[in-house]
Design goal:
Chain A is mainly beta. Chain A contains no helices and 11 strands. Classes of the chains: A mainly beta, B mainly beta.
Chain lengths: 107, 122
């Protein structure tokens, strides 16, 4: 099973700041990585798939990068609605796995 | 616009079974896989399994093999997840989600249902 390790666990930032979230895989997942956003009491929402493709309706301030085992999600300038928990997910190998999440909180 | 609507919260006793439904509206149901993901209280996301209605095939996470059955009724555009031999650790929010890609599976998930809380308690 591929283990995805996300860091940091919590990121404390102010609106307007840049957020950089990390996801590291225990073995290569090629480019088969996605990012989801989850707000309290809501279901997750797909943000990025195949490392860098934005899902429909996702603002351009969200971008993804990386390959192999190291990936990043960048939010260029945090909006109030961006404070949430973010999960990465791989589809390179069965079973599909998710990272433990990074909480982006207001500083 | 595709929307997934799940059945309501369930309270179950240890050792029993639960069956959660996920009804799709809008779009072509059979063309897209439906996956199930659970989230224990305050915890992360865990993939349970998925079904591809167009092929009538399923994949399950090994840790749930033998306890989970995912089915789909194409006539009502509804997917089901049944989990048996429930234990307290199965207490979680269960989400269904649709595969982003139609015709073939890409295993990225959007949209998601609203979630069904399953509580296992004596």
């Amino acid at each position: 099973e591929i283990v995805l390790t996300q860091s940091p666990a919590t990121l404390s930032l102010s609106p307007g700041e840049r957020a950089t979230l990390s996801c590291r895989a225990s073995q290569s997942v090629s480019s088969y990585l996605a990012w989801y956003q989850q707000k309290p009491g809501q279901a997750p929402r797909l943000l990025i798939y195949d490392t860098s493709n934005r899902a429909t309706g996702i603002p351009v301030r969200f971008s993804g990068g990386g390959s192999g085992t190291d990936f990043t999600l960048t939010i260029s300038s945090l909006e109030p609605e961006d404070f949430a928990v973010y999960y990465c997910q791989q589809r390179s190998n069965w079973p599909l796995t998710f990272g433990g999440g990074t909480k982006v909180e207001i500083k | 616009q595709v929307k997934l609507v799940q059945s309501g919260a369930e309270l179950k006793k240890p050792g029993s079974s639960v069956k959660v439904s996920c009804k799709a509206s809008g779009g072509i149901f059979s063309n897209h896989g439906i996956t199930w993901v659970r989230q224990a209280p305050g915890q992360g996301l865990e993939w349970v399994g998925e079904i591809f209605p167009i092929f009538d095939t399923t994949q399950y996470a090994q840790r749930f093999q033998g306890r989970v059955t995912i089915t789909a009724d194409k006539s009502t555009s509804t997917a089901y997840m049944e989990l048996s031999s429930l234990i307290s650790e199965d207490t979680a929010m269960y989400y269904c989600a649709r595969d982003l890609c139609g015709g073939s599976s890409c295993q990225w998930f959007d949209p998601w249902g609203q979630g069904t809380l399953v509580t296992v308690s004596s």
